[in-house]
Amino acid sequence: MRYDLVIFDNDGVLVGSEPIANRVLAEYLSELGHATSYDDSLRDHLGASVHRVHDVVLERTGERLPAEFDETLQARMSAAFERELKPVPGVEEVLGALTAHGIAYCLASSGSHERIRVGLRVAGIDDFFEEEWICSAEDVDKGKPAPDLYLHAAERMGVAPARCVVVEDSPLGVRSAIAAGMDVYAFTGLLEADRLPGATGYFGDMRELAGLLGLET
Fold it and tell me: Cβ atoms within 10 A of the Cβ of 149, count?
């Protein structure tokens, strides 16, 4: 099937931010008295919006995170991204192939608009994305695994959900895409396929995606 729109998750798919972000999150939660390992963060928060972090902590402990949590977390992540962030290998080739074949693409991320823009800029791929091609969980009422964000992206780009394919690397994101009625290819760069159930297909190297989409790089 030739799709009319390819929707990319951002963290871990376009930019190699998930290891950095989950390390920073685990460290900050632990500082606040909510002992969290890196693996705990991947299990509980990979692909999630910051609102979900609040919800998980409140549900498990009955305690609310401090009012400055979001601002402090964003500042720490931004600083870490500036030092360490790089694009996922092969992303430029895939985006170039989509452009060459005239296939529309966009980004739909659980991160804030600020975090998305910082990541794209530091990774050096911000020129691939017009402002209107960027969708954030800030734009919808419910983040992943609800379908709202991917449906919002499809609507913004003027494409029916059934004509869209999503590229994801998190269980929450795969569930979100399925709930939106879209095909989803799961990138196993961080998690193995058995931790990303229900995807249309799986690939472990971003350079493989063009072939899955029927493109030539």
Answer: 29
